[in-house]
Amino acid sequence: MSKKGKIIFGIVLSLLLLASAASVTMGILFSQKNAEAKEYGERIDGSYQNAYYEIVDNLNDVETKLGKVAVLSRPTLQQAFLYDIWRQCSVVVSCLSRMTAEEETEKIIGFLNKTGDYCYYLSRKAQTDPPTEQELSTLARFKEILGALNDSVFSLQDKMASDKGIDASVLSDMSAMGEIVKNSSDVDYPELIYDGPFSDGLLDRKALFLEDKEEIAEDKAMEKVKLYFPDASDVKKIGENASSIPAYIFSFVSGGTSGTAQITKNGGYLREYSCYERAVDPQYSPEECAQIAQRFLTDSGYTDMECVWVYDSDSIVYLNFAYAENGVVFYPDLIKVEVNADTGRVLGVECQNYIYNHTLRTVDPAPSNVEISSRIEVKSRRECVIPTEWGTEIRCLEISGTYEGETYYVYYDSETGEEIEALVVVDSLLV
Amino acid sequence: MKKAKKILKPILCFLLVVGVVFCGLYMFTDVIPSGIEEAEAGAGYSSGSTGEAVKQIQTALKNKGYYTGKIDGIFGKLTTAAVKKFQSDNGLKSDGIVGAETMRKLGVTFSAGGNSDADLLARIIYGEARGEEYIGQVAVGAVVLNRVASPLFPNTVSGVIYQAGAFDAVSDGQFNMTPNETAKRAAKDALNGWDPTGGCLYYYNPKTATSKWMLSKTVYLSIGNHSFCL
């Protein structure tokens, strides 16, 4: 071989060795990656199986406990079982949602949440008001549907055994079980529970504050924007909100910042305003921000509002205002305001609760006596009305006081004197 | 020479292909590790620390009357002295280091990948709607919270966000990006009860959505690229 030939042979050999080394390296990396992927697959399957067996166990328990509640006559155990059912339904919902989110799954989750909430409601009242015959027959219907659901879930075990773990087909079968709970449409859920803001019939919810207000045209609504935000420029309608508080949506620039406001079609009230502004160096105290917010609300047509909560976070002051009349604070009529403590500018207003709830009310006489815990050092008391989680209202006496360095608010039902809520203040600067 | 060229040509082509594949794998996948590990967030903030977090600490200290200096994001002598005074007044170890307990007492809510509701919400807002107007970002947070309250969905923020296939940002990994200040504020607003949608449970981008079930729902309002429905 000539010298030139040898050089070429050397180069070729080196390149071949390099290529072989690269191929081997890539092969190793790919096989490692495949092993990793397989391991992750196994872990996901393990997590699915864990969720599946949690579902099986808890569904089975719920079905059994629904039967037990019916045969008991004393409230103590009934209450415990009903509370357990609520808790275990929640566990099943959590596990199910980790596995699938198909349209049909929503039906199962809806059924389980409603069953759980119904039992929670019954457990809350069981001590003084045990389940009636009608309520027990509703529980029996739940038990029947849960039994069918339970059987179907259990039958998936065969498929899991014959196939390899929980695959797409098992998940799809699980979603399809929504068909079973479709038959639950005959269950008469008490209005008490699902009459709240997130009821199935949300769109039917009435905005009490706007009931007697006349509908205004778009140009009038635009004038309202300029009334509430006198420096507003470049006001443009960007859409409409067709929910149960119909509104025009406008974008505009105020204080040099672009923001969006919703003006109700009825009455032209500010429903919501929001914009983003950086805030880093507070120049206004929370008290001053509260005054700014209160003035803004009064100028926007929301009068007699009392500041009930203030929270200062990173130079943004969040304030809650509630309607107050004759010394009674109406917490359902709540408006939230956000003020930039750097500039003293209002950055956000949310009036949805006020618009839904504010109406003329008949206020009953104040309660004469309630039994207050001797451990709380009472600082103040006031009459108020609070919203319940199912959309009703309760007239209360609010006691605020301290215990071991923390501030608490305790609410007593004006009619019965019963303690109905206790809140601990985590972060608030009361103005 | 001709013979050598004949041998060299396919080998060079082969090497070129191997090189391109290798570079492709390096750039677009994590099959080949880059060897660069992200630094883990420190356990606290102290003298010498800088950045947005320090600004938040200074702001909180200023609000509480402990700090009179500039909000400049530099943890200097003034900030250290203010932290020490605050710690001493609040029964904490007066070491000038802002750790979890001092942050809690200060009411500073930022986190470096924590799992609070505010953090999860900020990440889903950033992952799903970072290009939207501020109101559109709050609206996405409100939809998550409306789902928490609805009987049709899981009952916790994490349950709703991690529901299998519920949010594209979780499936494609955008959920793991670090949210910006706007998304964090939008999350706070949503948690504070802001709901521009009036109770909507779904949203979709009409330009890209294909689900017949989703498209069949009545749209109650549109904000930016998202249509919101019940």
What does this 3D model show about the protein?
The complex is a heterodimer of chains A (431) and B (230). Chain A is an alpha+beta fold and 431 residues long. Chain A is built from nine helices and twelve strands. Chain A folds into two domains: 28-194; 208-356, TATA-Binding Protein (2-Layer Sandwich), CATH 3.30.310. Chain A is 45% helix and 24% strand. In chain A, strands 1, 2, 3, 4, 5, 6, 7, 8, 9, 10, 11 and 12 form a twelve-stranded mixed β-sheet that branches. The radius of gyration of chain A is 31 Å and the shape is extended. With 230 residues, chain B is mostly helical. Chain B has two domains: 52-106, PGBD-like superfamily/PGBD (Muramoyl-pentapeptide Carboxypeptidase, domain 1), CATH 1.10.101.10; 117-229, Cell wall hydrolase SleB, domain 1 (Arc Repressor Mutant, subunit A, Orthogonal Bundle). Chain B contains ten helices and three strands; from the N terminus they run H-H-H-H-H-H-H-H-H-E-H-E-E. In chain B, strand 2 (219-223) and strand 3 form a beta hairpin. In chain B, helix 5 (117-129) packs across helix 6 (134-149), helix 5 packs across helix 9 and helix 6 (134-149) packs across helix 9. At the A-B interface, helix 1, helix 2, helix 3, strand 1 and strand 3 of A face helix 1, helix 2, helix 6, helix 9 and strand 2 of B.
